[in-house]
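Propose amino acids for all 254 sites.
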């Protein structure tokens, strides 16, 4: 048997009929093998493509789940208020909201004061921070016990907005940090006094009303100290700015 240029075999010219049978069987088998190779390659490519699509779909599904979980994450204050809404009537819910707000204010002031006690530049601000931390920790302990007694849910952490405010504070350095801390504490205490005055007047629960009334004098005392410290820091900041300005003018005139 001879081989042609395209690789196929041709039977001998002179042979008996048996050779022709074997030749055609071999041709048929070779064609079948080629067809199977093509089918196998196609099947493999299809399987790889399906696997890729499946993995992409799975990744997108997981990403969607992650985004959904992130988007639907309630902040601690909302969680507490929703829990209290299920437990109390309208007036009871208002009292619970007032305690929630007071707790959130305490929580922020304690955390900010802890940071300032170590990071503040001036000894006056460090001393103020220690006082705020100690006083509000005690105040919040009483508030937490009152909330437990009244079955009121209070938040366990700061809201995202308050965390951003805390970041704004901790990013500052030097006298700018002291100024930011005293400004925040001044604003927080002014708001807290207004809130406690309203609570002592409007609260339905006698214990909550009394808690607010007891807190007002202490908060006012804190505010007086904070304002004094804030004014001193402002003066230091202004004097520092003036000194730098004069120094710049002196160098420019040379």
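Proposal:
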């Amino acid at each position: 048997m001879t081989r042609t240029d395209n690789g196929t075999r041709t039977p001998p010219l002179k042979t008996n009929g048996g050779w022709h049978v074997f030749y055609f069987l071999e041709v048929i088998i070779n064609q079948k093998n080629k067809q199977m190779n093509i089918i196998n390659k196609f099947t493999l490519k299809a399987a790889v493509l399906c696997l890729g699509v499946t993995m992409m779909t799975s990744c997108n599904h997981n990403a969607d789940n992650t985004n959904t979980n992130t988007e639907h994450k309630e902040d601690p204050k909302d969680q507490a208020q929703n829990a209290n809404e299920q437990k109390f009537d309208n007036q009871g819910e208002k009292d619970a909201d007032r305690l929630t707000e007071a707790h959130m204010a305490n929580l922020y002031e304690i955390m900010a004061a802890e940071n300032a006690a170590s990071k503040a530049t001036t000894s006056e601000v460090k001393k103020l921070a220690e006082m705020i931390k100690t006083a509000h920790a005690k105040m919040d302990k009483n508030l937490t016990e009152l909330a437990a007694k009244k079955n009121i849910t209070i938040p366990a952490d700061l809201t995202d907005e308050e965390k951003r405010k805390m970041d704004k504070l901790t990013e500052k350095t030097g006298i700018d940090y002291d100024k930011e801390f005293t400004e925040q504490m001044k604003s927080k205490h002014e708001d807290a006094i207004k809130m406690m005055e309203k609570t002592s007047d409007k609260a339905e629960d006698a214990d909550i009303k009394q808690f607010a009334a007891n807190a007002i004098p202490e908060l006012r005392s804190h505010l007086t100290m904070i304002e004094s410290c804030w004014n001193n820091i402002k003066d230091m900041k202004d004097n520092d700015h003036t000194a730098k300005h004069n120094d710049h003018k002196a160098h420019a005139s040379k």
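The two ends are 109 Å apart (CA to CA). The chain has two domains: 16-70, 76-252.
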